[in-house]
Design a protein that fits this description.
Layout: E1 12-16, H1 31-45, E2 50-55, E3 63-66, E4 72-75, E5 86-96, E6 99-111, E7 117-124, H2 132-135, H3 146-167, E8 174-178, H4 185-196, H5 204-213, E9 214-217, E10 228-230, H6 231-238, E11 250-251, E12 254-256, H7 257-263, E13 267-270, H8 273-282, E14 288-290, H9 297-300, H10 303-312, H11 331-353, E15 362-367, H12 383-393, E16 396-401, H13 409-424, E17 429-434, H14 439-448, E18 451-454, H15 466-472, E19 477-480, H16 485-488, E20 495-498, H17 511-531, H18 533-548, H19 553-565
Parallel strand pairs: 1-2, 1-8, 2-7, 8-9, 9-13, 13-14, 15-16, 15-18, 16-17, 18-19, 19-20
Antiparallel strand pairs: 3-4, 5-6, 6-7, 10-12, 11-12
Length: 567
């Protein structure tokens, strides 16, 4: 396929191990994938000349089931690409462990609000020509052991580059690596540069040429987010890689994918200002800028709030900055729209769990990936005090959701502990832990609760986008000052801060943050909700107007265009 026959000339290639762009296509695990989906949708809205690459993940991440004790069980999230995607005729070949591995691509076309589009290509090794053990390499998102993960990263980075070339994308100018999973694309770019000179050794100019083309986004300070593979495993999978000696990415006998991406990128960024401070301490000597994440406003705004905005701010979808006019929405209309969204959530909860929740009752929400540093149990760490608050102010409800990685024992234990608290805090407080936290459920919860809670251990929340989705729906946050909330929190205006504003706290056991959380609930949140409802609704308007108008992927992509792609 020649590029002149493509939908429009593309200049930017966006690589991500996971992209969540459709509720029935489970090619994402959580925030990183949903952010990637929002990124490509906003790129289509803004007519950014982008093409995206990911893996097909035929068995998805997993379907989560929780038993009566809160023990997580996983089932494959099987889906059929042929139902949603267009199969492309091109097939490319890779060498993995000395075998030829053939890769094909499926296409999904993202359409934007102004006529733009972004094609997303999902790579697939499930071909008859492949060895049986290679056919499932693109099946499981973050599945298997290190060898499986490395093979997937070879397919994404090297295979993705070759597939783009085979599809006719010959004039791409920027290659954006969304996390280090795609960093091997730099080696393919190096080989292309060397091949032009018919040379087997990269020169300084080859390295500089690759660096001019690449952009890298790092998403987390958590070690699990910075892949490292033993060099003997790399050579087992890819063969002898002398080229790596020129990339300064070999550390302590391992190939470090973050260093590979950092060393071969013209621009590197964190995903919030606070995360930028932390990243520059983690990787001294590297110029790591910050572009704070956002969410796709039209996707994550509930139908009732969207209808209200359509009525009073008619162009908000095309220009998210217009959401600042939400400050002028009438309070009765805001509350009515919120209650419609809340009733939708409560009806879902009661249908799924028979919990007997009531839409008139104050409701807290906590939903995100179940990882130890997220500290989901902090909110229920003092049941007696929570029940005393409910006795004083009125009944309270809590809606939880979130998946733990199948190999994350700590995350699974966190779910069990939260589940255990359900009986402890009853009957004054009704609480549920909803299984299978995915995009449709996320949309319901972030719009339907009254206050959004986030309690990570600083500085490990690089950004956190769920609170941004809540803000678009007029839901204030009660959150630890980490990630995006350092920028988004205006105390008593857009929500409330938990704990102090320091990047590296000594509060590892959570006692100080728990005390702060309960103090804010008892002396600020609950009194405002129950006794100053007008003030609470004004905070809801301010959440949309101040945070919704800024923390969106429309603004974020404009930042990438100016700072990363065309600077």
């Amino acid at each position: 396929m020649e590029e002149r026959f493509l939908e429009q000339p593309r200049r930017i290639a966006y690589f991500s191990m996971e992209i969540g762009f459709h509720a029935r296509i489970p090619t994402y695990s959580g925030g990183l994938g949903v952010l990637a989906g929002d990124t490509v949708v906003s790129s289509a809205d803004l007519r950014v000349p982008m093409v995206a690459v990911t893996l097909v993940h035929r068995k998805g991440y997993f379907v989560q089931e929780l038993d009566a004790e809160g023990i997580q069980h996983e089932k494959p999230a099987d889906w059929n690409p042929a139902e949603f995607l267009e199969l492309m005729p091109q097939i490319i070949c890779l060498q993995i462990e000395g075998r030829n591995v053939f890769v094909r691509a499926w296409r999904y076309l993202i359409h934007g609000v102004a006529g733009g589009n972004v094609p997303v290509f999902l790579l697939d090794t499930n071909l008859d020509e492949n060895h049986p053990q290679d056919r499932d390499l693109t099946d499981h998102l973050y599945g298997g052991e290190q060898r499986y993960r490395l093979c997937q990263e070879v397919i994404l980075g090297i295979g993705g580059m070759r597939m783009l070339r085979a599809l006719g994308y010959r004039h791409l100018e920027r290659f954006h690596m969304n996390e280090g999973h795609a960093a091997l694309l730099t080696l393919e770019l190096l080989r292309e540069s060397m091949a032009e000179r018919d040379d087997k050794n990269p020169t300084a100019e080859d390295i500089a040429s690759v660096r001019r083309q690449c952009v890298f986004t790092t998403h987390t300070p958590v070690p699990a987010g910075h892949d490292q593979f033993p060099i003997n495993l790399v050579e087992q999978v890819l063969g002898k890689q002398d080229i790596l000696r020129h990339t300064n990415s070999l550390r302590d006998g391992h190939l470090n994918m973050t260093y590979l991406a950092l060393n071969l990128s013209r621009f590197a960024n964190s995903v919030s200002r606070r995360h930028g401070e932390v990243s520059r301490q983690m990787f001294p000597g590297y110029a790591i800028d910050s572009i704070t994440n956002g969410v796709h406003a039209a996707t994550w705004t509930s139908d009732p709030i969207a209808a209200l905005l359509d009525k009073h701010v008619p162009l908000w979808r095309q220009d998210n900055l217009g959401l600042r006019h939400a400050m002028n929405l009438s309070k009765p209309e805001v509350w009515d729209a919120h209650m419609h969204a809340k009733r939708a959530l409560i009806d879902h909860v009661n249908n799924q769990t028979n919990a007997g929740m009531d839409a008139e009752v104050f409701t807290l929400g906590f939903a995100r990936r179940a990882a130890s540093y997220k500290r989901a149990d902090l909110l229920v760490s003092d049941p007696a005090r929570l029940k005393a608050m409910a006795d004083r102010f009125g009944p309270m409800q809590i809606v939880y959701a979130g998946k733990a990685h199948p190999r994350d024992g700590g995350g699974k234990e966190l779910i069990r502990r939260v589940h255990e608290a359900i009986q402890t805090i009853a009957p004054q407080i009704r609480m549920v832990y909803l299984p299978n936290y995915e995009m449709p459920l996320g949309r319901l919860i972030t719009a339907g609760v009254d206050v959004w809670v986030n309690t990570p251990l600083r500085p490990f929340e690089a950004s956190g986008t769920s609170g941004m989705k809540a803000a678009l729906n007029g839901v204030p946050s009660l959150s630890v000052l980490d990630g995006w909330w350092v920028e988004g929190c205006i105390e008593g205006v857009t929500g409330w801060a938990v704990g102090g504003d320091t990047a590296w706290p000594a509060d590892d056991n959570g006692s100080q943050d728990a005390a702060s959380l309960y103090k804010k609930l008892e002396h600020a949140v609950l009194p405002t909700f129950h006794q100053q409802r007008d003030c609470f609704i004004h905070m809801m308007r301010q959440s949309i107007a101040i945070n919704g108008s800024y923390f969106n992927t429309q603004r974020m992509m404009q930042d990438y265009v100016v700072k990363a792609y065309y600077s």
